[in-house]
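Worked Example 4.2. Consider the chain below.
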Amino acid sequence: MKRWKISKIVVVLRNLWSDAAYERELDNRMEAVRGAMLEELFNALDAHAQRTILFVKLKSACEIQTLWYLRSDLMQVLSERLGECEAMQRLDVLTRLFKGIVPKPQLESALRRR
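Applying the procedure from the previous section yields the following structure tokens:
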């Protein structure tokens, strides 16, 4: 009985640690995606990027799904500045950054459309 309690405590603690590590990894990946999206926005708009609504939305996004859906807004800005072909190529690179953090069918669907 005593051995069972100790092993159960160890398992629970290990699960808590791995959940925390997983959450940190997701946070790091989300910040990497956000950074890449902001970089594309800055490259397209130069100094004017910080005055756009998209900049504010990207900076304030709290969930990876929000960043996922903001790709279409970024595509519109990039298309206006760089042309649709170049914008699609850049968005494909950004879309691949979402691998493993959005549902696989969602990612595959977005990549197939291009």
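The chain is about 80% helix and 0% strand. Residues 2-112 form one domain. Compare this with Example 4.1 before moving on.
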